[in-house]
C-alpha cells in the first residue's frame, strides 16, 4: 500500500473532525500530501468514515489522477489539489462544516482576530470566498484568491477550509477557528469585541512560529 502512514493519519484526522464536533455524517474532507513522493491521500466521497480503513483513503497525484484506492476521491478534489499547487509549502487541507465559523460565511463577514490563540495560528482575519456551486467557474478561483497567503478561508454559505505545513497544523487550525468564531459570537452578545490590529496579529503569529515551544 502506498503512503500507508499518511493514509492512517488522514483517517484518524477524519475521525477527529467528528470528535471535535466539526462535521457529522459523511461531511468534511481531509487531504494530505506526502512531501517526498508528492502523492496525496484524500478521504473518499460521501462515505461514513467510521466504516473505513486506511486503504480506503484514495491516493491521487497533483493532477487528480487516482493512483491507488477503490473509492472516488472527495468531489472537491480539484479545489484541494489547486490549493496544494498554489501553496507548495503546505501539505494538508482540512474542510469542515463547523457551525460557528460557517455562520460567518452565511452573513458574508470575515472572522476577525479576537483571541491570542487565533492570532498565533492565523495572523490575519479569515476571509469569506464568494458562494460557488461545484460546477461554477469560480469554484476554485474564489476560495484560492480569498485564502491568499493565509491559513484559512470560509467557503461562502458552506464551511471552513484550514491549511497547514502538516496535517496536525491544519487540524489545530480547524479547531482553533471554530473556537474563535464561537468566542466572537459570545462576545458580541456581551458588547463590542476588541479586535487585534494587523500589527498585533502579525506579531503574535511571528512570535508563535519562530520562538514558541521546544527547540
Ligand atoms: Zn463541505
Are any ligands bound, and if so which?
zinc ion
Number of strands: 8
| Assigned CATH superfamily | Class II aldolase/adducin N-terminal domain
What count of helical segments does DSSP give?
Answer: 7
CATH topology: L-fuculose-1-phosphate Aldolase
Low-confidence stretches: none
Strand content: 5-15%
Whole-angstrom Rg: 17 Å
The overall pLDDT, averaged over residues, is 96
User: Helices and strands, in N-to-C order?
Assistant: HEEEEHEHHEHEEHH
Helix/strand structural class:
alpha+beta
* Structural domains: how many: 1
CATH class category name: Alpha Beta
- N-to-C CA distance: 34 Å
Architecture, according to CATH? 3-Layer(aba) Sandwich
Shape: globular
Tags for this model:
215 residues, alpha+beta, L-fuculose-1-phosphate Aldolase, 8-stranded mixed sheet, 8 strands, globular, binds zinc ion
Question: What report would you give on this structure?
Answer:
This protein has seven helices and eight strands. With 215 residues, the chain is an alpha+beta fold. It has a single domain (4-210), classed as L-fuculose-1-phosphate Aldolase (3-Layer(aba) Sandwich), CATH 3.40.225.10. It has an eight-stranded mixed beta sheet, with helices on both faces. Helix 3 (99-106) packs across helix 6 (167-190) and helix 4 (116-122) packs antiparallel against helix 6 (167-190). The termini are far apart. The structure holds zinc ion (ZN). Zinc ion binds next to loops.
How would you summarize this macromolecular structure in one to three sentences?
The chain has 215 residues and is α+β, with helices and mostly antiparallel strands. It has helices at residues 4-19, 77-86, 99-106, 116-122, 138-147, 167-190, 198-210; strands at residues 29-33, 40-42, 58-60, 66-68, 92-95, 127-129, 152-155, 159-164.
Amino acid at each position: 500500500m502506498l503512503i500507508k502512514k499518511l493514509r492512517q493519519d488522514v483517517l484518524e484526522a477524519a475521525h477527529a473532525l467528528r470528535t471535535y464536533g466539526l462535521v457529522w455524517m459523511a461531511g468534511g474532507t481531509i487531504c494530505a500530501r506526502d512531501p517526498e513522493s508528492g502523492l496525496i491521500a484524500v478521504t473518499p466521497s460521501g462515505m461514513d468514515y467510521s466504516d473505513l480503513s486506511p486503504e480506503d483513503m484514495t491516493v491521487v497525484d497533483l493532477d487528480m489522477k487516482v493512483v491507488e484506492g477503490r473509492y472516488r476521491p472527495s468531489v472537491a478534489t480539484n479545489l484541494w489539489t489547486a490549493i496544494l499547487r498554489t501553496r507548495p509549502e503546505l501539505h494538508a487541507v482540512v474542510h469542515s462544516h463547523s457551525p460557528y465559523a460557517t455562520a460567518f460565511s452565511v452573513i458574508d463577514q470575515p472572522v476577525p482576530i479576537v483571541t491570542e490563540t487565533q492570532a498565533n495560528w492565523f495572523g490575519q482575519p479569515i476571509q469569506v470566498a464568494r458562494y460557488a456551486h461545484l460546477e461554477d467557474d469560480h469554484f476554485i478561483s474564489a476560495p484560492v484568491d480569498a485564502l491568499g497567503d493565509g491559513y484559512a478561508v470560509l467557503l461562502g454559505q458552506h464551511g471552513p477550509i484550514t491549511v497547514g505545513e502538516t496535517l496536525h497544523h491544519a487540524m489545530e487550525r480547524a479547531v482553533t477557528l471554530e473556537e474563535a468564531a464561537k468566542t466572537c459570537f459570545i462576545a458580541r452578545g456581551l458588547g463590542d469585541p476588541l479586535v487585534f490590529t494587523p500589527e498585533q496579529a502579525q506579531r503574535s503569529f511571528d512570535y508563535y512560529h519562530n520562538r514558541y515551544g521546544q527547540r
